[in-house]
Write a structure and sequence with these properties.
Mean pLDDT: 90
Oligomer: single chain
Number of strands: 0
Helix content: over 70%
Number of domains: 1
Largest sheet: none
Order of helices and strands: HHHHH
């Protein structure tokens, strides 16, 4: 019985940390774009996107848009695509019964760090 409770506590911790890894990357991008006075509404209008600024569905594209506009080459930005996987893991952690594993969590943390390092670099 105690072993099951310990296992369940670990699972809850993995799930919570996996979700936080996604949001750490997401918030890092959001704050970065704000600090650069990025015209998010203009971006949405130029792309014909009917969504609110700083949404999960547009944040990665907006970051690409900004970084390319300041001369960063696309091949340097491939790690930003990891945000999609982090989002998927966050949803799995939040909504699926099995949640995520310790291995999933370690990968999430690595991916979040990769994304944050790109934002920090530029």
């Amino acid at each position: 019985m105690l072993e099951n409770r310990i296992f369940n506590l670990r699972k809850v911790s993995y799930n919570a940390a996996g979700g936080r890894a996604y949001y750490a990357a997401f918030q890092s991008i959001t704050h970065y774009l704000i600090s650069k006075n990025y015209d998010y509404i203009g971006f949405l209008q130029r792309k014909g996107i009917d969504d609110k600024p700083y949404s999960h569905g547009t944040i990665k594209r907006a970051l690409f848009d900004y970084l390319v506009s300041i001369g960063i080459k696309l091949f340097e930005l491939k790690s930003i695509n990891l945000l999609d996987h982090l989002y998927w893991i966050r949803r799995k952690a939040d909504y699926e019964i099995d949640g995520i594993t310790e291995i999933d969590l370690k990968r999430c943390l690595e991916k979040a760090n990769n994304i944050i390092s790109i934002v920090d670099k530029y």
